[in-house]
């Protein structure tokens, strides 16, 4: 059983939980990067130069349920700071430093005074490196 203050993951000082911002989908993609080197009389050769690791968190925020509307502006401020942030999951595994590359939100089901009843969000992260 999960309580509302159980932290699923921590990114810097921000803890993802039911009480703050809970994602319901996490997609991670790791790709190899190769440099192309031209060679005379034949096709180009490829040389491995590292990898890219990106992660996308998606979910819905219900402002009147918990936390209000402060979490996504906080994520946008973290993005604007441009600093690498240590990621640690709820099991204690350290994933290294990541940067926030994008924060998207979709507001719907408006209630009084134009306040959204549901805010869908997506947070795009990229591995900063060692």
Describe this structure in words.
There is one protein chain. The chain has one helix at residues 71-81, and strands spanning 9-11, 14-16, 23-37, 45-61, 85-89, 94-110, 116-127. With 130 residues, it is mainly beta. It has a single domain (9-127), classed as Elongation Factor Tu (Ef-tu), domain 3. A hairpin with a 5-residue loop joins strand 6 and strand 7 (116-127). The two termini are 35 Å apart. It holds the Pfam family Phage_P2_GpU. InterPro entries: Myoviridae_GpU.
What does the secondary structure layout of this molecule look like, with pairings?
Layout: E1 9-11, E2 14-16, E3 23-37, E4 45-61, H1 71-81, E5 85-89, E6 94-110, E7 116-127
The percent range for strand residues is over 45%
Give the CATH topology: Elongation Factor Tu (Ef-tu), domain 3
Extract low-pLDDT stretches.
none
CATH class: Mainly Beta
Strand order of the largest sheet: 2-1-5-6-7-4-3
Protein name: Phage tail protein
Organism: Thalassospira marina
Labels describing this entry:
single chain, 130 residues, Elongation Factor Tu (Ef-tu), domain 3, elongated
Overview in brief:
The protein is built from one helix and seven strands. The protein has one helix at residues 71-81, and strands at residues 9-11, 14-16, 23-37, 45-61, 85-89, 94-110, 116-127. InterPro entries: Myoviridae_GpU (IPR009734).
